[in-house]
Every structure is written in C-alpha cells, then in structure tokens.
Design a protein that fits this description.
Blueprint (H helix, E strand, L loop, with lengths): L8 H4 L2 H19 L7 H24 L3 H7 L5 H19 L13 H31 L3 H25 L4 H25 L9 H53 L10 E8 L6 E8 L4 E9 L3 H19 L5 H13 L8 E9 L4 E7 L5 E3 L6 E2 L19 E4 L5 E5 L1 H4 L10 H11 L5 H16 L8 E8 L4 E7 L5 H12 L6 H22 L6 E9 L2 E8 L26 H9 L2 E7 L2 E9 L6
Antiparallel strand pairs: 1-10, 2-3, 3-4, 4-5, 5-8, 6-7, 6-9, 9-10, 11-12, 12-13, 13-15, 14-15
Helix pairs in contact: 2-3, 2-9, 3-5, 3-9, 5-6, 6-7, 6-9, 7-8, 8-9, 9-10, 10-11, 15-16, 16-17
C-alpha cells in the first residue's frame, strides 16, 4: 500500500506518546486540585495560568502533527494556503508560550521557543520567521510591560537567528544539536530571570523572592522543559516517520515501475523456449530484461542493470528500456543500437546515472544471434553435449557516461540444444553473512551441474542456490536472470555452392526432409518449383558470375513447412519485383517476375531481410497430408 496524507497518522500514533501526554495532563490537574502545594493563592493562580498555557502548546502541537496538511507541508507538497495556516498555528504556539511572561509570572520564554523550533523543522527558515513575527506581535499587543516585551522580542529574534544560522550547518547531521542550541537560549533566559528577580530587590509586595523562585520558576521550568523534551522528541519522530513513509512510497512506486518493465509472457515457439525472472530485494534497483519482435523474424533480447537504487533507478531504468526498444525497432545491429542508445542516455544525465546492458538480435529463422555488450555481466552459453562457458565478446563502456563510446557487434549461430543464460550482477555479487561473495565460479559450476534443458529449471536452480548461499544475510541487489534454450530437432540445415548444377542436390535435400511427413506428391512438386525459383534467383542475382555459399534450412512442424535460404551475396530482394500482368499473352508480357509471382501464389507467406551482410529469404507453406 502506498501511504498518503490521509492514512499516515495510523503509522504515527504511539502508546508511549499517549502515556507521556496523559502524565503532563495529570500534572496540570494536580496543580489545579491541590492548591496546598503552594503557599499563596496568587502564586497558585500564576502557576496554573502558566502551566495551562504550556499544556495548550503541547496538546495543540501534538494533534497538529496528525493533520494531512502538516504531512503535506513536511513533504513540501502543500499549497500556499496550507503553508500559511501551519505557520500561523506555530505562531499561536509561540504566542501562547510567551504570553504568561508578564509582570506577574516572570520572563518564562523557553516554551514559546518550541513553536519556533517546530516551525523551522517543518517549513525551514521562512516558516520560522513568519511564526516568530506572529509571536512578537502577540507579545506587543498583550503585554503591559515594555521592558518585558522588548526582552521577549529580543529573545525570539536571537533564537530565530540561532535556529536559522545553526540549522543550516547541523540540521542534516543531527536534529538534537539544533534542539540543544535552542534549549540553551531558554536556559539563559531562566538564569537571567533569577538574576533579575532574585538577586535584585523585588518591587512586588505580595510574595517573596524565595516563594517566587521555588513556587513559580522551578515548577514552570520543570514542566516546560519536560514538555519541550516531549514535543521535541515527538516532532523528530514525526519527521522521521514522514521521511520513512516517503521512502516507503518511493519504494512502492519504484517496485511498481520495475514490475511493469519485466515481461511475464514468454515468446516460446517450436524452436525457442524462454524463461526469466527478477526477484527484487530490500532496495529496488534498476534491473530489467526485455524481448520483442522487430520485423521479418528478428527478435531483440535485452538485459540491463541501472546504477543506484530506489525511485531514481526505476525512472532511469524506464528511460533506458524505452530508448533501447525505440532504437532497436529501426536498427538491426546491436552495436549500433547501443551506440545510439548511449548517445540519448548521455543527454541531460546530470546525476551521472549509468546502465550496463547486453543486447542481442536473434534471427528466429536461421537462429543466428548478433550481440553487443555495454559493461554488463558476461553471459554463459552451452552446447548440447558441452558445458556452459562464458561468451566471448568485446566489452563496451556502460551507457550514459560518454557519447564517444563505441560498441562492437559480434555473431554466433545457435545450434540444436544450445542454451543461453543471461543475468545481472545481483547473482554473482550476492554475499553471505561472512561477507563472502557468491562469485562467477560458483555460478558456472551450478549451471554445469544442473542437468536440464528446461530454462525454468535452470533459472529456479540458480535462484535457490543463491538464496541458500546468502542465508540470513541481507541481499540488497535485485536478482535477475533470463534463459533461452534452442530446440532444432525438427530443423535440418545444409550448405551448398551457388551453382545451378547444385539445383538437383538442393531439391533432393528438401524432399528428404519432408519424405516422412506424409505429404502429398503434388505438394512435393510445389516445393521443388519454389526451391528452384529461389535458388536460381540467388545464383543469378546475389552472386552473379561469382560463386558463393548458400545455406538451405528446412523445418517441418506438423502441417507446416518452413524453407529458409541464406547467402552472403549482394543485397537483393526478389519480392521487390513487380508481379507480371497475367492477363497479357506470353508474347506481350515483359520477361521476368513470373517465378516470384508463383512463389507468392503457392506459399502462405514469403519475406526477405538483409542482416549483417546476409540475404535471408523465408517461405512458409501449408503441408497437406495424403489422408486429407
């Protein structure tokens, strides 16, 4: 739950505060019902009036802290009207605290200072100044003694200066120092009162100096100091609670942002299986992973880790995620995606945040993986009959630091049974209670002892082992993993020379792939026609008079055949050729385009792409069975 101004008071109420407040009220009632504690009725009235004023300060302050307006003011979220009302209330507290200090009751100033101190805690020097001015005006209006008024005003101004000047230096280091600075002003005022009214012969005839000191000054001082300590501790507690609630709100918001950035629907296909997870820890970081289709069978895979923690990291993470995705939709080389993303993230990055990232572009037709790194943890890759090993790639600079950074795109071909394991440093940099690090060696050993081709089993095994290693130690960084397995059991691939004499071999290879599928002879004839058109196009247009290599891949899955041809020749998209006008006679039609027209008519889909210097042409065909 995100806490707000309407429900934060439930987190603030303390039984201890209620008990202390009750004790102070009990003391007030004791002075009211036991007048024998004092020796003179006049003294009793003075004490009662003074303590009543102090009690009003305590109660007013205590319940003010619970108001939503006070909560918003402490968080700098209040409007001008609310700010002015809070300042006025503190001014009233100052006025109540200084009103008893007339000729009859001495210059008891110390309790008026609590309103000044709290005004500064709440709204800074500006609010303290406004509150002090109100207290000064109240003193001038209500006090008959000019000297007493001037002394009170001087004390308030001195205290205001002390709060403002001293508070700038020590407020962040500890509020207690500021409190004792103000309390020392009160102590000096009490000492001055003793010198003025005890050492100097009194002009008042209705009570002696000793009665005044022990029956008025001491009870007032004890009661006011007790109340001052109580309210000071309470206001400090309130401020810390509000700061904590703000942190809780930020943390809850950061967790929501981070959770929204982690996809939960994995794009599993017949040949690819995905599984990942992000386990947020005590401090929300900026981990995320993502995968999304770009175009023509290309899929982007991203995993990243933003520096810093909490809400700033979550916001920068969303910016990084959106930036990388937007650029990946227009670029196909990971190195270029990282370069352009870095340039964007460097703009306006005054806080110096950065993000490590690994970006891959996977061709889901030919299962070629292009990838680039930006200071991220090294991924692991495993072949079907081998162990996990670290991927070899050139490390790049983290994103968001230098616009001059460059990133290198590298390439690998995924084979049947391969598995890719991506992660953030929250895995390898987890610590146990003895401050030993989990480390990449333990991770690699665990990956190699986890005998499973299921990405979910691998991810959950790693997480379980990390949690077992850390034990009761606090894991302060997110644990984020993404695992991808490749199943090409239904895929066959063969390399040919771009020579028309190889055409029969190409046809024989494709027919052998579908011979056990139960498809009709008519369908086989269609496949031969399509294979011939595509292969001849590659030989004549991609390589011309030169000779190169052509990779032919065939995947049979239930009632579908997927054929893919890949070559390293010049970029050539046969689908750009205009379809011939079949209404014209053969003599009137321009030469060319009929083969591609047949491919469009005889297949469910056909698409071309040029990636990293390679032409990739893919067709899909519905495969009818003999028993249909």
């Amino acid at each position: 739950m995100i806490l707000d101004a309407e429900n934060y008071e439930k987190k603030l109420i303390s039984k201890g505060h209620i008990v202390i407040l009750s004790v102070l009220i009990a003391v007030m009632l004791m002075f009211h019902f036991v007048p024998m504690l004092v020796t003179d009725g006049v003294l009793y009235e003075i004490i009662e009036d003074t303590l009543l004023c102090y009690l009003l300060c305590i109660v007013l302050t205590y319940f003010l802290v619970f108001t939503p307006a006070y909560y918003r003011t402490m968080r700098n979220e209040s409007d001008k009207k609310e700010w002015a009302v809070i300042a006025l209330i503190f001014g009233i507290i100052i006025a109540i605290g200084v009103l008893p200090s007339g000729d009859d009751s001495s210059l008891i100033l110390e309790f008026g200072l609590i309103g000044l101190l709290m005004a500064y805690y709440t709204g800074g020097s500006g609010m303290a100044t406004v509150a002090a001015l109100f207290g000064i005006i109240a003193k001038l209006v209500t006090c008959d003694s000019a000297g007493d008024s001037l002394l009170t005003i001087a004390g308030l101004l001195f205290a205001l200066a002390a709060v403002s000047l001293l508070g700038r230096k020590v407020f962040d280091r500890g509020k207690a120092v500021l409190f004792f600075a103000v309390a020392s002003v009160s102590a000096l005022m009490v000492l001055f009162q003793y010198i003025l009214y005890v050492s100097v012969p009194l002009t008042f005839s209705y009570y002696s100096a000793e009665d005044w000191f022990f029956a008025i000054l001491v009870p007032q001082a004890v009661f006011s100091i007790a109340g001052l300590l109580f309210l000071h501790q309470f206001i400090i507690n309130a401020r810390e609670k509000i700061v904590n609630l703000k942190n809780m709100n930020d943390l809850a918001l950061a967790k929501k942002i981070q959770a929204s950035a982690i996809p939960t629907d994995f794009p599993n296909t017949r040949t690819l299986c995905f599984y990942g997870g992000m386990i947020p820890q005590s401090e929300v970081g900026g981990d995320f992973y993502d995968f999304f289709s770009i175009k023509d069978g290309l899929m982007a895979i991203v995993i990243a880790d933003v520096s810093d923690k909490g809400l700033p990291a979550a916001l920068f993470m969303m910016k990084a995620k959106a930036t990388i995705k937007a650029i990946a939709m227009t670029q196909t080389l990971p190195g270029e995606i990282l370069r352009l993303s870095n340039a964007e993230l460097c703009k306006g990055n005054g806080e110096g945040q950065f993000v490590t990232a690994w970006v891959g572009i996977l061709d889901t037709d030919m299962h070629i993986l292009w990838y680039a790194d930006a200071g991220h943890s090294v991924p692991y890759i495993r072949s079907r009959h081998g162990d996990f090993r670290k991927m070899e790639f050139k490390k790049g600079l983290v994103l968001g630091v230098s616009q001059k950074a460059k990133y290198t795109t590298q390439r690998t071909v995924l084979e049947d049974g391969d598995m890719l394991f991506l992660y953030t440093d929250g895995v390898t940099e987890a610590f146990d209670a003895q401050e030993s690090m989990y480390g990449p060696e333990r991770l690699e050993n665990l990956l190699n002892t986890t005998a499973s081709d299921d990405p979910k089993v691998v991810v959950e095994s790693v997480y379980s082992d990390v949690m077992s290693f850390t034990g009761d130690a606090d894991v302060s960084d997110d644990i984020t993993m993404l695992c991808i397995s490749v199943n090409l059991s239904t895929v066959k691939r063969k390399l040919f020379t771009s020579d028309v004499d190889e055409l029969d071999s190409v046809k024989d290879f494709i027919i052998s792939c579908i011979s056990d599928s139960g498809c009709t002879d008519m369908f086989k004839n269609k496949v031969e026609i399509i294979a011939e058109e595509i292969f001849i196009n590659i030989c004549n247009n991609s390589y011309g008079e030169e000779t190169g290599q052509v990779t032919v891949q065939c995947r049979v899955a239930e009632d579908e055949l997927k054929l893919t041809f890949m070559d390293d020749g010049i970029p050539f998209n046969p689908l750009e050729a205009e379809s011939p006008d079949t209404t014209l006679s053969a003599e009137d039609r321009p030469i060319g385009g009929l083969g591609i027209h047949l491919i469009r008519r005889m297949t469910e889909s056909a698409h071309y792409k040029h990636v990293d210097g390679k032409n990739i042409f893919t067709v899909r065909m519905r495969m009818p069975k003999t028993d249909e």
